[in-house]
Amino acid sequence: MKKFTLLLLLYAFLFSPVAFAQEGRRVLPIENEQTAIVLSVNGNNVRVQNAAPKSTLEVYNVLGMKVTSIKIDSTDKTIILNLPKGWYILKIENIARKIAIK
């Protein structure tokens, strides 16, 4: 049963739309009721646009453990994530996106 769950999780991450960090700059528009939050990933750099000041960007690994959290103090902020290669989940406010750092 554990193998099946692990295979199902691996399948979900491999075959779902993902922004690959090494493929160049990809912009992932995220719709919010008040405004459109935009996450741009380029290598280890993440640019957050249109987020409410004093919000928090949380980074999780694929096991669901929080890796780091960063306070967003302006509506346009660029953050350098010093993370090893792998899959991560970025969460800001009530929005989450998957990224891969290669």
CATH class: Mainly Beta
Q: Could you give the order of strands across the largest sheet?
A: 1-9-8-5-6
What's the number of domains? 1
Q: Which value, in Å, is the CA radius of gyration?
A: 14 Å
How many strand segments?
9
Estimate the helix proportion, in percent. Answer: 10-25%
String of helices and strands: HEEEEEEEEE
Which outline best applies?
A: elongated
**SS-based structural class?**
mainly beta
What does this structure look like?
The chain has 102 residues and is mostly beta strands. The protein has a single domain, classed as Sandwich (Immunoglobulin-like), CATH 2.60.40. Helix content is 13%, strand content 50%. A 5-stranded mixed sheet has the order 1-9-8-5-6, with no helix packed on it. A hairpin with a 6-residue loop joins strand 2 and strand 3.
Offer a concise description of the structure.
Helices cover 13% and strands 50% of the residues. The chain has one helix at 2-14, and strands spanning 19-20, 26-30, 37-42, 45-49, 55-61, 66-72, 76-80, 86-92, 95-101.
Topology:
Blueprint: H1 2-14, E1 19-20, E2 26-30, E3 37-42, E4 45-49, E5 55-61, E6 66-72, E7 76-80, E8 86-92, E9 95-101
Parallel strand pairs: 1-9
Antiparallel strand pairs: 2-3, 3-4, 4-7, 5-6, 5-8, 8-9
Key terms:
4-stranded antiparallel β-sheet, 5-stranded mixed β-sheet, 9 strands, 102 residues, mainly beta, 1 helix, Immunoglobulin-like, 13% helix
